[in-house]
Amino acid sequence: MGDETFETYFCAVHHCCNWCLGGVAFTQETDTKWLVGVWEGTQTVGPFVTRVTVEFKNGGNSWELELTSGGCKWSKARGSAKVSGNAVEMKGEYYQPYGPCRPTYLSYSLTRAGDVLEGTGIGAANTPFRVSWKKVK
Questions:
Q1: What is the pLDDT of residues 11-35, one digit of tens each?
Q2: Staple partner for 11: which of 20, 23, 44, 56, CB 3.0–4.6 Å?
């Protein structure tokens, strides 16, 4: 085969597999449609539980969030999302803060398990919190 790798040779001859197309692995999910829609759930720090509604839009690349309980009830945030397989990284800020939630940076690192997103976030209190959201629409 000379300087050619097996992958280059195989792809040129057979034209049949995903890993020949830009290195996409067989198990890697490139479709983000699963993320688009409305999710509801909780954000928990110690004994404090805050209810949240978040909507992913624009193919899963952007989101808007509203806190529906707790000290920051009615606060709204928005930002961008990056999906890699079942993992979602979110970054944004409050654009309509209420109560102790001032315009501040938010970030989330979540993983999908069926119709649930779970992981951690950091927000107004600069303290990590547990996240559990279920897709409702």
A1: 333 333 333 333 333 334 457 889 9
A2: 20
DSSP state of 31: -
What single-letter DSSP state applies at residue 82? Answer: E
CA–CA separation, 47 and 51 (whole Å): 13
Residue at token pair 């040129």: 12
Beta strands 105-113; 87-96: pairing state: antiparallel
Q: What is the pLDDT of residues 76-107, one digit of tens each?
A: 999 999 999 999 999 999 888 777 777 688 99
CA torsion angle for 116, 121, 125, 126 (degrees, to 10)? 170
Amino acid at site 56: F
pTM assigned to the model: 0.74
Structure tokens at 15: 């034209």
Query: What's at 98, amino acid-wise?
Result: Y
